[in-house]
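Sequence design from tokenized structure. All designs in this work follow the same two-part layout: the structure record, then the generated sequence. An example of the structure record is given first.
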């Protein structure tokens, strides 16, 4: 009897243990199912914890003009738009300039990716991007309205697209104010007055061909060297708008400003193709839109900026010559277009531009 009781107790204990073990297995299984269901969420949270918040990216931008210049302020406007629309994920940071870099040097930096973006004079791209010459020809635009309609239209878009073959992405054009000749010793009232003068031109500027044909001697110089060259007689004359004339100090050493108003070459905002390829399609679209919007901001500031520069020049004693024979410049320069624009299809575009009002 005792043996039977002991055997029965052992059996009962085994049954209890088995039941508890089975219950534990069921409970553990349920937990495992829950863990497996939450696994994707857990992996996501772990990834976010490791990566942290989205890293802000800073695009380096160059503009050699002073801080208060309309193009610089337009870039600041664009930068604020980009920062706001990306919640700080993408920002523009203007690089401090030493004042010695030429546009050609800056374009090279953008092309190789040392700089992400830059505002440069379109004339500096004439040699490498032939269609760009169209917008820099003398007297090609009949008015500011004509110029803006052209750069904002299909021809402007085609020229921006042509930059891609040079490793650049063109975002927009900024207006170029009317340029006029100024001299260190006398007024330039007609095309004949250019004969024998040493006149500064930009690197890769098509103007060298035109000036040589008029009997002048073109001298290639970066903007940073023009003041000293005027002062020492290395050059006799240069051309520019009121703002650049004053901010670069040329009015001090070349006080004869003749209102020839012979050209209105725009500047262009370019992006490195190397940088562009690392941006998402959405960010590329955003940059294009913000750049286009900055053009209107720049235009709203430009006229007042130019007028203020003229007042400053006149207050400093600059002699402004308004009695200029502009027709003599037209008659001398316009027939020379084919020497600068050699491609037949581009010559046809020049003719179309001349016919537009």
């Amino acid at each position: 009897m005792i043996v039977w009781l002991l055997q029965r107790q052992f059996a009962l204990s085994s049954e209890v243990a088995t039941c508890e073990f089975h219950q534990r297995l069921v409970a553990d299984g349920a937990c495992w199912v829950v863990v497996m269901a939450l696994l994707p969420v857990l992996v996501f949270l772990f990834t976010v914890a490791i990566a942290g918040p989205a890293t802000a990216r800073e695009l380096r931008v160059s503009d050699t003009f002073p801080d208060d210049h309309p193009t610089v302020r337009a870039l600041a406007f664009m930068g604020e738009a980009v920062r706001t629309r990306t919640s700080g994920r993408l920002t523009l940071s203007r690089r401090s300039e030493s004042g010695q870099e030429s546009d050609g040097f800056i374009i090279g930096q953008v092309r190789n990716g040392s700089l992400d973006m830059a505002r440069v004079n379109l004339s500096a791209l004439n040699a490498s991007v032939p269609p760009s010459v169209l917008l820099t020809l003398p007297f090609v635009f009949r008015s500011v309205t004509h110029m803006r309609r052209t750069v904002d239209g299909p021809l402007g878009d085609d020229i921006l697209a042509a930059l891609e073959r040079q490793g650049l992405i063109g975002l927009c054009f900024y207006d170029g104010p009317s340029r006029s000749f100024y001299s260190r010793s006398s007024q330039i009232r007609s095309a004949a007055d250019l004969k024998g003068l040493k006149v500064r031109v930009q690197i890769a500027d098509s103007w060298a061909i035109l000036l040589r044909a008029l009997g002048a001697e073109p001298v290639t110089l970066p903007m940073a060297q023009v003041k000293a060259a005027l002062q020492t007689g290395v050059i006799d004359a240069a051309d520019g708008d009121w703002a650049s004339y004053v901010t670069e100090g040329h009015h001090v050493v070349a006080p004869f400003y003749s209102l020839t108003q012979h050209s209105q070459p725009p500047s262009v905002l370019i992006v490195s193709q190397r940088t562009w390829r690392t941006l998402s399609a959405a960010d590329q679209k955003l940059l294009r839109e913000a750049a286009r919007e900055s053009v209107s901001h720049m235009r709203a500031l430009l006229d007042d900026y130019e007028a203020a520069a003229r007042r400053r020049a006149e207050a400093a004693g600059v002699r402004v010559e308004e009695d200029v024979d502009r027709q003599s410049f037209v008659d001398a320069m316009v027939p020379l277009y084919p020497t600068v624009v050699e491609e037949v299809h581009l010559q046809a575009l020049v003719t179309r531009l001349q016919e537009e009002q």
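The radius of gyration is 34 Å. We note this feature because it recurs in several other targets discussed in the main text.
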